[in-house]
Amino acid sequence: MGQNIKLKASDGFELGAYRADPAGAPKGAVVAIQEIFGVNHHIRSVCDRLAKEGYVAVAPSIFDRITPNFQSGYSPDEVAEARKFVADPDWAAMLRDTQAAIDAAKPVGPVGIIGFCLGGSVAYAAATKLAGLSAAVGYYGGAIVRFANDKPAVPTQLHFGEKDAGIPLSDVETIKSKRPEVEVFIYPGAQHGFHCDERASYDKASADIAWPRSMEFFAKHLKR
User: Fold this and answer.
1) Backbone angles phi, psi at 91, to 5 degrees
2) pLDDT tens digit sequence for 118-129
3) What is the C-alpha to C-alpha distance for residues 161 and 171, in angstroms, rounded to an integer?
């Protein structure tokens, strides 16, 4: 369903991306932001799902500035390698590359953004700093609490697992108290990465609630 494309950021940097198009006329577009594992099979499948929902989906490879076309699985060794990319993340560069994906998607219609793990934090930051979005959805973004003083400029929805070892519920409560206008959902018993059906932490019951919730949110806010 999808194809690899190239994007150009505002500083002239060229990065790769995966784009999936719906069979019929698109309802709009959604930029999908990767976990630390790159635009791998799972993120491409998320784009394909978005296309089936009627959206053009674009997933920029936001690690291309470090390692072009980086993709990873989920073994302990692969997780340790992927973590190196976020030891000292260049948020400004990742947001430039995210803006390039938004700009590429804009001709289609209204643009939303969805991100997971690192991408959840990028999606939240994009909602506060970038132009051209109409809605944002973030899944288990660990850095969102650090950005919670920044108010999103578009409707924003966040998803967290109750048992996320990296995001204490106290962080989620901080986000809720600082950003009462943001929709925040906590999934009982769910761990970090609960949406990814290729990870051991996958929680089908939670994912089967969170995804339709996200799609309803986009349907509400991505209107021509």
Assistant:
1) -60, -40
2) 999 999 999 999
3) 12
8 A C-beta contact, residue 112 and residue 132: no
Which segments of the chain have a pLDDT < 50?
A: none
DSSP letter (8 states) at residue 133: -
Active site residue 195: no
Sole residue written with tokens 């799609």: 215
From the candidates 47, 117, 171, 195, which is the catalytic residue? 117
192 labelled catalytic: yes
The verdict on whether 47 is a catalytic residue reads: no
What predicted TM-score, i.e. pTM, was given to this entire model?
A: 0.98
2 within 8 A of 51, measured Cβ to Cβ: yes
Q: Which of 103, 164, 171, 203 is catalytic?
A: 164
Q: C-alpha angle 197/17/116, rounded to 5°? A: 35
Dist CA 60 CA 203 (whole Å)? 26
Catalytic residue among 42, 192, 195, 221: 192
Helix (H) or strand (E) holding 51: helix 41-52
User: Alpha helices of 152-203 — where are they, by DSSP H?
Assistant: 169-178
Tens digits of residue pLDDT in 33-76: 999 999 999 999 999 999 999 999 999 999 999 999 999 999 99
Looking at residue 153, the DSSP 8-state letter turns out to be S
